[in-house]
Amino acid sequence: MFYTAGLPFNLARNPWFRQAFMFAANSKLGGYVPPSYNKIRTSLLVQEKTQVERMLQPIKSTWSSKGVSIVSDGWSDPQRRPLLNFMAVTEDGPMFLRAINTEGEIKTKEYIFQRMLETIDLIGAGNIVQVVTDNASNCRGAGLMVEQKYPHIFWTPCVVHTLNLALKSIGAARNEEDPEYEHCNWINEVSSDAQQIRNFVMNHSMRLSMFNEFSKLKLLAIAETRFASQIVMLKRFHEIKDALTLLVVSPKWSDYRDDNQGRAQFVKDKVLSDLWWDKVKYILDFSEPIYSMIRAADTDKPCLHLIYEMWDSMIEKVKTIIYRHEGKEEYEHSPFYDIVDKILQSRWLKNNTPLHCLAHSLNPKYYTQAWLAEVEGREAPHVDEEISTERNKCFRRMFGDGPELHKIKQQFGNFSLFAAGFSSFDSIEDRTYLEPKIWWGIHGNSAPELQKLALKLLGQPSSSSCAERNWSTYGLIHSTARNRLNPGRAEDLVFVHQNLRLISRKSSEYSSGPTRFWDIGGDTHDIFGGGADFLQHAVLSLDEPELEAMLDDLQAE
Questions:
Q1: Three-point CA angle 523, 501, 483, nearest 5°
Q2: Of 127, 203, 247, 532, which shows the fewest CB atoms inside 10 Å?
Q3: Does residue 361 contact residue 382 with C-beta atoms inside 8 Å?
Q4: % of the chain exceeding 70 in pLDDT
Q5: What is the mean pLDDT of the chain?
Q6: Cα–chain-centroid distance for residue 549?
Q7: Residue 367 and residue 371: Cα distance in Å, rounded?
């Protein structure tokens, strides 16, 4: 079955595969006939989708208390049909809801708004905290229309998409007449050099074979759609520096350069240039705080309440690295940093929303002396003018102008000033050590309305990455080798596949035993060949860094 159908060997770790064979081996099933082709793709699929919907009910029952983020993204299937993807995200993980075939439709803000309303009705408007999309103008317009209809629901631009755009702007090619050319165009030049080196090695089988003799790590063919694609490529180049050096000084190098001696000399000169590698290292150094924030936010885990502080800290870290590299004091002027800071500040103004400020204000850690003392000039959220203004906007949108607004403001005042209900020694001490939601669960009962709000906001994501990653699932199911699936059947298959993964990841068997981490890694590192890992299709993405170390062990087994 495996060999004739070309099934990936990773299927042997699938818990349902193992359960089916173990059941068959331990049961008397004489005369059993496997389901037919038509039955397994029609009636059994419908039955399974119904069963999965029942299995999801325990998660759905928590929506009213935990709050839900609707996450949306667009994609095109192998037949170039445009699809619009909707997922419901809580701290339990992303739940696939629907994928709408938008073929023949113009994706105006009004059209997307109508599809969002249908999804809101499906979940229940009272359960929804925010709608997260990318920064496209039609998505932004649709999100603002949702805010007008439901003031308590906020549109939040994906912070990962915003940071990725900032990195692209910093490393973009510039015209020689551009005043920024002198200070920034070198980044694009270094990135272009790295691409040429990669292509020169990868596009010749013997050169690639020689490289593989010197390096256990593969070169990366990184799709432009990947977040921080330039940084990921340069990080890999820095890791394989020694292998590239050995390659170009190898006696065999001259044997396989005759087809393009000029390009071969270019590659050799760059690889042996300490100045070029210093530039690569500098790009990686000053972009590391941005890249780290992308990795932290490119996750389904709750981090909405961390974004405001993370962005502030990220900009300060970038400044410190640039000034240290340039050997300048704090008060001196750095043209390069001014350009980077301008880009980051501009993107932050487009990304920051009142909801970020409110969620930041509800993190008890940000009122402790230990946190305030970490950075000179830090202020508690209730003292910061911008945060306070935006937070009060949120309160008014959520609670109107009546007595509920006065009650929530009173409760927030008590919380932020360590007043009635929040003045005990345990309550103050635990702000430093406990996770925000745990702290509110233990110490928030004196402010029930604020506690309910905090428990919702502190469990929300800040990116639409899960919706984009879901297209990998869609691509796995609706591939070029299986492109006759109609959109409805493909949607049902994705619904079953994605949500069974969600359910499976909540089981204890997921992290131990023969089926541990069954849905990551797999055999995808083999499917493209050519000696390159192609990150557009990689199962692992930036959202799961803690699983990367385990992947080698799984493949070794």
A1: 60
A2: 203
A3: yes
A4: 88
A5: 87
A6: 18
A7: 7
Strands (E), 273-346: none
Query: For residues 422 and 425, what is the distance between their CA atoms, to the nearest angstrom?
Result: 9
Please check whether residue 463 is in contact with residue 73, taking contact to mean a CB–CB distance below 8 angstroms. Answer: no
Token output for 112: 């997307």
3-state helix, strand, coil in the chain (%, to 5): 60, 10, 30
CA distance 438 to 217: 42
Surface-to-core class of residue 220, CB atoms within 10 Å of its CB (0-12 exposed, 13-18 middle, 19+ buried): buried
Please report which confidence band the pLDDT of residue 547 belongs to, taking 50, 70 and 90 as the band edges: very low
Q: Taking Cα atoms as reference points, which of 27, 132, 40 lies closest to residue 87?
A: 132
pLDDT computed for residue 78 by the predictor: 65
DSSP state, 92?
T
The token pair that represents 104 in the structure block: 């023949």
Cβ partners under 8 Å of residue 207, min gap 6: 200, 201, 247, 256
Judge whether 460 and 129 are in contact, CB under 8 Å: yes
What pLDDT is attached to residue 222? 62
Q: What is the pLDDT of residue 515?
A: 86
pLDDT band at 526 (very low <50, low <70, confident <90, very high): very low
pLDDT higher than 70, residue 432? yes
Instruction: Please give the pLDDT value at position 259.
Output: 64
* CA pair distance 498, 466, nearest whole angstrom: 11
- Considering only CA atoms, which of 242, 193, 249 is closest in space to residue 215? 242
HSE, side-chain direction, 13 A CA sphere, residue 554:
26
Which domains, ranges and CATH numbers included, belong to the chain?
61-156 (3.30.420.10), 158-352 (no CATH), 353-463 (no CATH)
Q: What's the rounded Cα separation, in Å, for the pair 242 and 473?
A: 36
Strand-pairing partners, residue 505, are: none
Q: Judge whether residue 8 has pLDDT over 70.
A: yes
Distance CA 468, CA 542 (A): 12
- pLDDT, residue 31, reads 86
In the block, tokens 């069974």 appear at 500
| DSSP state letter for 330 | T
